[in-house]
Amino acid sequence: MTTTDAEPISDDEIRVVVDRLSRPNRSGGRVIERAAIMAEGTSSGAILDWLATAAWAPEALPDATPQSGGSGLHGMRRESARGGARPPAPRRYVSPSTTAA
Q: Which of 11, 75, 90, 99 could form a disulfide with 28 if both were Cys (CB 3.0 to 4.6 A apart)?
């Protein structure tokens, strides 16, 4: 894995960062906030790539409803973004559950 400035980052280094930034999740796995990943700076792209390879899933975004703020000034912005802009980035990434069902 590499950063945007072409400095190689090993899987072990990324694993240490992910362990430091993540926390336990109710499902038995781990969860990591996207904001924490982005705060890592130039290595954030490599971390996101590593998470995808390691089967971490982006958390689904809730649908906009009137009860969740789907209307009004900011709701209109969300509606117009659905028309052609890229979808919003997930807020969290969730690891596969480590407990047996």
A: 99
